[in-house]
Amino acid sequence: MLQVHEVSHRYGKRSWLERSGSRPPVLADVSLTIEQGVCLGLLGTSGAGKSTLGKIILGLERPSQGQVLFQGQDIYRADKKVLQRLRRDLQVVFQDCYSAVNPMMTAAQIIGEPLDNYERLSAKEQQRTIEKLLIQVGLTPQDASKLPQQFSGGQLQRVNIARAIALKPKLIVLDESISSLDMVHQTQILSLLAELRASYGLSYLFITHDIRAALTICDSIAVMDQGRLVYTGDATDSILESGQPAVRQLVSSILPDHPSGRIMFNG
């Protein structure tokens, strides 16, 4: 489904205010794969390079070197027609649900954007499709006429997810898509994502710093540190025992529900 092959990236030379010489790479020789129907968790602390890698996979930022193959096609070498098809099958849900939408558009217009771009539906067919999508993400057909500010954060993220699945894509990049939500809404969205994956046979790239969320939804986990992949493995509790420093840093950020259990993560 997706192959990232030895991708490196850097952001040019330092400014005159910085020390001389080239800036260190944001990404260095990163390689990973995602098979059909698989959810890969891409973890790391802030600045590890995971969101930059996500942008490169989405075709939003060309890497300094390396390849990104989606369904066997190099997304940075594909012609316009092929790229259009690939973009249909590759969707994204961003962290900030409010900045990801036009505040003047209704939920129906937001969800209908990809349908307008790729489908040729009658007005009635589009309305039925949007209503079905709203129901699938736990909202109601009556929500179609609401503006973004009329939704809670968790509800609006459901609208964004409905937009992402509207074209029945093959892969969805979830870039910190639950980190701005409270624990209750996080749990609800993770459950929804699992249900949609089962229904549509979706693949996910789940970018997060939350190891608990990754263990909930992911099949495998890759951990980044300073632009490099430093750990890969199945999404099992065994990762909690890893001695890899970047993994230990992620584990140490977990706070158990009861204060008496928190001491075990301080070492």
Automatic annotation (TrEMBL):
Signal peptide: none
CDD domains per UniProt: ABC_NikE_OppD_transporters
Keyword terms of this UniProt record: ATP-binding, Ion transport, Nickel, Nickel transport, Nucleotide-binding, Transport
Superkingdom of origin: Bacteria
Pfam family, one: ABC_tran
PROSITE patterns: ABC_TRANSPORTER_1, ABC_TRANSPORTER_2
Location of the ABC transporter domain: 2-251
InterPro entries according to UniProt: AAA+_ATPase, ABC_transp_ATP-bind, ABC_transporter-like_ATP-bd, ABC_transporter-like_CS, Nickel_NikE, P-loop_NTPase
NCBIfam families, sorted: nickel_nikE (TIGR02769)
Name this polypeptide is given: ABC transporter domain-containing protein
Taxonomic classification: Bacteria, Bacillati, Bacillota, Bacilli, Bacillales
